[in-house]
Amino acid sequence: MPKNLLPDHGGKALKKATRSAALEKPPTTPAKKRPKKHAGTPPENDLERAYCHLGRAAAVAAELQAAPREFVSRFLEYGAEFYLEALSEKGRNAEHAAFAAAEVLRTAEHIALASLYGQNRSSVPALPAPKTDHVKRLQQTSRRIDDAVRHARSSPHLAQFTAAARELLRQAEQSTESHETQLAHEFLHAAEALTEALSQLPEE
Q1: Is 2 within the bounds of a domain?
Q2: What is the distance of C-alpha 183 from the center of its chain?
Q3: Region entry Disordered: which residue ranges (predicted)?
Q4: Residue 169 counted as domain residue
Q5: Per the confidence metrics, is the pTM higher than 0.85?
Q6: Is residue 178 assigned to a domain?
Q7: Domain membership of residue 156 as a residue range
Q8: Alpha carbon distance 78, 12 (integer Å)
Q9: How many CB atoms sit inside 10 A of residue 153's CB?
Q10: Domains held by the chain: number
Q11: CA distances from 155 to 54, 103, 120, 149, 163 (A)
């Protein structure tokens, strides 16, 4: 993951949050269960979500500078891979692939929007940001990443997606500390989406 999307502000809020989470020892959250479907039929809503996120992310990525565009393109490729896998697989693995495709492509869309915002800050209306407890959401997402990794299936993408989710969380924290609420929202949504994908990766 590129380190130059935002300046590094030190990571104090997330460090405090994750330390608190470790001390509290929250109950383990089970992997998200998907509704039962007939064998061989991936959920249509997940395929539709994947297709829509793909189109939007690709359109935004086309307006980005080379470095962020290349990074978003990697997630577009991963999402397209899962999408095609969902169409060719059968049973539960097809369901997992469809869900992973939708969430990975949702990740790509939010990263693309964050990058585009970074290129066009001056064009965003200067409205007061809504009150949001980003530190609490950062803490919750950090816990969910840990839970997702513990329950994740064997996948060649596991280590890479885990590292990317944590880096997106770090970027969200930096944006929160620098009071860039739009960026914080986009990076946090991207981290949350990739965490969802981790919980439902298709088996290798």
Answers
A1: no
A2: 14
A3: 1-48
A4: yes
A5: no
A6: yes
A7: 12-21+43-120+133-199
A8: 32
A9: 15
A10: 1
A11: 22, 16, 37, 11, 14
